[in-house]
């Protein structure tokens, strides 16, 4: 006979899995990289500048200031390239990619198990 789990039991198991995942090497590395990003003044200044110019771009585009909009977008691209060249940012992006890959793998495993369970005949 196939064991059926209640919604509460599944959510409790999911919570335990989430706790284990948060202790994984990938997530730990991500948290460290995020802390380094937050503590890096140069990174924060560049991020703030990019946000400021992005807001300006929205306004310029809204008011049809095409030439000023393109100059602003070029400045944003330059600032973004400068930001992306900082090693701690590269480390953060890599850790984010690793965590995303890890979560995608978990999602595929769960999806696969659910699909397998749907396809297998139930015991009566």
UniProtKB/TrEMBL annotation:
Coiled coil: none
Endpoints of the signal sequence: none
Gene3D superfamilies reported in the protein's UniProt record: YheA/YmcA-like (1.20.1500.10)
Designated name of the protein: Cell fate regulator YmcA, YheA/YmcA/DUF963 family (Controls sporulation, competence, biofilm development)
InterPro entries: Bact_com_dev_regulator, Biofilm_formation_YmcA, Com_YlbF, YheA/YmcA-like_dom_sf
């Amino acid at each position: 006979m196939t064991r059926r789990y209640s919604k509460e039991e599944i959510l409790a198991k999911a919570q335990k899995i989430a706790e284990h995942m948060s202790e994984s090497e990938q997530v730990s590395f991500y948290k460290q990289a995020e802390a380094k990003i937050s503590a890096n003044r140069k990174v924060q200044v560049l991020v703030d500048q990019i946000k400021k110019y992005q807001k300006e771009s929205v306004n310029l585009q809204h008011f049809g200031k095409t030439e000023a909009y393109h100059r602003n977008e070029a400045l944003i691209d330059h600032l973004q390239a400068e930001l992306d060249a900082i090693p701690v940012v590269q480390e953060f992006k890599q850790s984010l990619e690793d965590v995303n890959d890890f979560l995608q793998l978990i999602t595929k495993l769960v999806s696969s198990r659910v699909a397998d369970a749907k396809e297998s005949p139930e015991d009566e």
